[in-house]
């Protein structure tokens, strides 16, 4: 039995109708089902997600998951142009102890209820996390994530980080006032990666999201423009960290 499922194009149409009937955006829906935005976005874009998450989404929408899923082997590309661009960007960064994951207690999920610990190198599916970054100088933050499925996202700026201009010291994402106060760990086991880019000014990027926008899924054109910007602005700081997601 496959650990992941993919919605068929016809299934996505049914799911979108059900979502519209509930008058919910994908971000609102992610909060309702207590799943990450990337998982919900993958579901509605016919990309693989963890089987249990797929079934939970269908139950919430009042759909039979067997009518929504497509069955059979799914071919995946091992190495894509997007992966190569991510590797190029990562190679410009430095591994850092100034950024990492902090566990949040599930029973409270409130601000300031993090479990005291060093940054986590491994987290379990079903736990809740915040991303903490500790700046020694003020700057504008771009925070990018590559999840275990290989998809890449811009979490800052977004609705989870409405203040990308940061002072010195520690800052946690999601920031106060976000739709969620902690990110649920989900998906399939594997490695996830985070790249932080700190600039003095707001980067002049055509795709840069507004502070209240939903999380942007990154494409090759986005990373190409970002690489060009970093090469032209050598004063930019690039940090890199990764962690394992376990079942």
The biggest beta sheet reads: 8 strands, mixed
Radius of gyration, CA atoms, in whole angstroms: 18 Å
pLDDT averaged residue by residue? 86
Helix and strand run: EHHHEHHEHEEEEEEEEEEEHE
Could you say which overall geometry the principal axes of the C-alpha atoms support? globular
How many discrete structural domains? 2
Task: State the end-to-end distance.
Answer: 16 Å
Estimate the helix proportion, in percent: 25-40%
Tell me what the structure shows:
Helix 2 crosses helix 3 (37-44) and helix 6 runs parallel beside helix 7. The strands form 3 sheets. Strands 4, 6, 8, 9, 10, 13, 14 and 15 form an 8-stranded mixed β-sheet that branches. Strands 5, 7, 11 and 12 form a 4-stranded antiparallel β-sheet that branches. The protein has a 3-stranded antiparallel β-sheet with strand order 2-1-3. 28% of the residues lie in helices and 29% in strands. The chain is globular and about 50 Å long. The chain has 247 residues and is an alpha+beta fold. The protein folds into 2 domains: 4-70, 434 Repressor (Amino-terminal Domain) (Orthogonal Bundle), CATH 1.10.260; 81-246, no CATH class. A hairpin with a 5-residue loop joins strand 8 and strand 9 (152-156). The mean pLDDT is 86. The protein has 7 helices and 15 strands.
């Amino acid at each position: 039995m496959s650990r992941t499922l993919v919605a068929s194009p016809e299934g996505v149409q049914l799911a979108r109708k059900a979502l519209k009937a509930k008058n919910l955006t994908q971000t609102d829906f992610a909060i309702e089902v207590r799943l990450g935005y990337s998982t919900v976005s993958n579901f509605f874009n016919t990309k693989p997600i963890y089987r249990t998450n797929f079934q939970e989404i269908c139950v919430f929408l009042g759909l039979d998951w067997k009518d929504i899923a497509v069955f059979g082997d799914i071919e995946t590309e091992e190495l894509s142009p997007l992966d190569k661009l991510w590797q190029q960007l990562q190679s410009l960064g430095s591994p850092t102890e100034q950024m990492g994951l902090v566990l949040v207690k599930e029973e409270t999920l409130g601000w300031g209820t993090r479990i005291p610990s060093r940054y986590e190198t491994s987290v379990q599916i079903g736990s809740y996390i915040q991303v903490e970054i500790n700046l020694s100088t003020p700057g504008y933050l771009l925070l990018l994530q590559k999840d275990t499925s290989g998809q890449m996202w811009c979490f800052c700026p977004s609705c989870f980080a409405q203040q990308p201009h940061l002072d010195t010291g520690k800052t946690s994402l999601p920031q106060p006032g976000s739709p969620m106060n902690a990110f649920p760990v989900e998906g399939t086991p594997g490695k996830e990666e985070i790249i932080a880019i700190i600039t003095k000014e707001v980067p002049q990027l055509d795709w840069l999201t507004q502070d209240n926008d939903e999380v942007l899924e990154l494409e090759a054109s986005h990373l190409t423009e970002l690489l060009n910007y970093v090469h032209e602005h050598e004063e930019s700081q690039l940090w890199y960290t990764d962690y394992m997601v376990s079942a």
